[in-house]
């Protein structure tokens, strides 16, 4: 075990991210940033976070200080950002405000598609974050960036280091939360990035004639991490590499998979703010009540109290394999199970969900919404959790499901493979199937239903094992500290 290392280190680790729960969230990225920096901070690492100040940013925290008119520089000339500081559980969090970019109805897109100026919005964000840091007295030890929205930061750092001694001892870590989202834009926007022309190359930010912000990070970051060991291996292959596997293979030595954790203070049947009744592995009565309440809340058929309810929570996208589930809904309905799908996404998938709900009233429930409280209640009230993802960098919902005593039925990919021990292993916590095919998925679900129906003791034992799994952030945080150490976090020298 690596010792927490606060006292010996003075210099900051700055997290730069486009989402952080509870201030902003569209998916797992928000959850991770809501937990990892704070865990490190509590372990003594001087962590701080920088994120955009969206209209949707929810915060009841008092702004302690505003840094006005931070110049963001070329190519915007006199354009500036205001930066608000709050303190969140003791840790500094900085919000970058520029109304024309972030004061909008959504984070990245509307139902019609991505905001047309997302490149400009996040180039600005990267530059503003670095301009803000540059105004501080001391440079951070590490800037830890997340996903394409912050992908240019490692590139800027690379070039700034040559020009400005302030950055000499600052290195970058980049975490890939999903390789499929790359921030790929027209080459015209390269000029807006303000990067030198030499960055326009295979070993820079150029990708088949376009600007690719994720690729920038993969080429320039000191270390690259991703969110599970299996996904770290998978993305080196053509099948999962999203066109960047060859770039990643050049960085294989600097690529590490660190499994995400669960914020048990937020997610769990003993702690959740949203359940009608709390419960635990020692006292499961509440889970039954949560199921009854869910049936009432969603207007499902009362006979489902005695039948398994299968829950799905996630973006309705191909990645999540929702279409694989849709293919087997009629067969599952013949087996008299309940299905609840909570999610929004592609219109065709949303429409399919609504059609099933109309066709199987009381047995198929479709909620096309993003609603955190219902996500908790669905985790608690379902008997099993469906996750037929085609790929899954880590996946948080299956870990939440395990903790709510709701065994996951999932594809054997990425983080799902790393977090679920599959039936019939004696230590099984859920079910996994190998190929993303409806037939294999159906077979696994039927196995689960059969066990639920015919062997309640074995089912209960599996539930208990899942609830006892410990995916707390502490362990992952230690692994990140190790990465920072390798970059010279502790001794002041820095290896890029
Ligand atoms: P990803 O980040 O790929 O979307 P994860 O499983 O890592 O998938 O994280 C998804 C997070 O988003 C979880 O916290 C999950 O509960 C939440 N989530 C996704 N869709 C919804 C929804 N429709 N309503 C509420 N929460 C949702």
Structure write-up:
It is a single chain. This protein has 496 residues and is an alpha/beta fold. The chain has two domains: 6-261 and 474-486, Glycogen Phosphorylase B (Rossmann fold, 3-Layer(aba) Sandwich), CATH 3.40.50; 285-470, Rossmann fold (3-Layer(aba) Sandwich), CATH 3.40.50.2000. 36% of the residues lie in helices and 18% in strands. It contains 17 helices and 20 strands. The chain has helices at residues 28-42, 99-102, 118-134, 152-163, 190-193, 213-220, 229-234, 245-250, 285-297, 322-334, 347-359, 372-381, 397-403, 414-419, 438-454, 456-468, 473-486, and strands at 13-16, 47-52, 65-71, 80-88, 91-97, 109-110, 113-114, 142-146, 171-176, 184-185, 206-207, 210-212, 223-226, 255-257, 309-313, 338-342, 364-367, 384-387, 408-411, 431-433. The strands form four sheets. It has a nine-stranded mixed beta sheet with strand order 3-4-5-2-1-8-9-13-14, sandwiched between helices. Strand 16, helix 11 and strand 17 (364-367) form a beta-alpha-beta unit. Helix 4 (152-163) packs across helix 6 (213-220). The two termini are 25 Å apart. The structure holds adenosine-5'-diphosphate. Adenosine-5'-diphosphate (ADP) is lined by residues 27-28, 31, 313-315, 342-344, 369-372, 375, 394-397.
């Amino acid at each position: 075990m690596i010792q927490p290392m606060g006292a010996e280190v003075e210099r900051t680790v700055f997290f730069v991210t486009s989402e952080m729960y509870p201030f902003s969230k569209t998916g797992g990225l928000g959850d991770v940033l809501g937990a990892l920096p704070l865990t490190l901070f509590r372990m003594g690492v001087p962590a701080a976070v920088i994120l955009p100040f969206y209209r949707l940013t929810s915060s009841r925290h008092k702004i302690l200080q505003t840094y006005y008119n931070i110049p963001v520089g070329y190519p915007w000339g006199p354009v500036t950002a205001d930066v608000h500081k709050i303190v969140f559980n003791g840790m500094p969090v900085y919000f970058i405000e520029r109304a024309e970019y972030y004061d909008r109805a959504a984070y990245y897109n509307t139902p019609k598609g991505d905001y047309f100026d997302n490149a400009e919005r996040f180039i600005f964000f990267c530059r503003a974050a670095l301009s803000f840091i540059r105004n501080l007295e001391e440079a951070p030890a590490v800037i830890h960036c997340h996903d394409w929205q912050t992908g240019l930061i490692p590139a800027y750092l690379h070039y700034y280091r040559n020009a400005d001694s302030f950055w000499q001892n600052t290195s970058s870590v980049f975490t890939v939360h999903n390789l499929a989202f790359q921030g790929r834009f027209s080459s015209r926007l390269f000029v807006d990035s303000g990067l030198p022309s030499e960055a326009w190359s295979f070993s820079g930010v150029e990708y088949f004639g376009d600007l690719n912000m994720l690729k920038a990070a993969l080429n320039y970051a000191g270390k690259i991490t991703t969110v599970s060991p299996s996904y770290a291996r998978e993305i080196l292959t053509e099948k999962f590499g999203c066109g960047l596997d060859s770039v990643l293979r050049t960085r294989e030595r600097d690529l590490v998979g660190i499994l995400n954790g669960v914020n048990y203070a937020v997610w769990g049947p003993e702690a959740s703010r949203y359940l009608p009744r709390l419960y635990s592995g020692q006292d499961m009565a509440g889970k039954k009540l949560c199921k009854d309440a869910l049936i009432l809340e969603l207007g499902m058929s009362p006979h489902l109290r005695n039948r398994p309810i299968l829950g799905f929570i996630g973006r309705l996208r191909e990645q999540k394999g929702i279409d694989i589930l849709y293919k087997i809904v009629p067969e599952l309905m013949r087996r008299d199970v309940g299905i609840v799908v909570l999610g929004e996404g592609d219109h065709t998938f949303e429409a399919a969900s609504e059609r099933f709900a109309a066709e199987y009233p009381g047995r198929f429930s479709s909620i096309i919404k993003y609603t955190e409280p219902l996500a908790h209640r669905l985790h608690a009230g379902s008997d099993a959790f469906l996750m037929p993802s085609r790929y899954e960098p880590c996946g948080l919902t299956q870990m939440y499901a395990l903790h709510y005593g709701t065994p996951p039925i999932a594809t054997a990919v990425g983080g799902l493979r790393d977090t679920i021990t599959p039936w019939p292993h004696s230590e099984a916590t859920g079910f996994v199937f190998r190929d993303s095919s409806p037939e294999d998925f159906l077979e696994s679900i039927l196995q689960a239903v059969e066990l639920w129906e015919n062997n309640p003791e074995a089912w209960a034992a599996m539930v208990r094992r899942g609830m006892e799994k410990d995916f707390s952030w502490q362990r992952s945080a230690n692994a990140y500290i190790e990465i920072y150490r390798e970059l010279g976090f502790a001794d002041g020298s820095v290896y890029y």
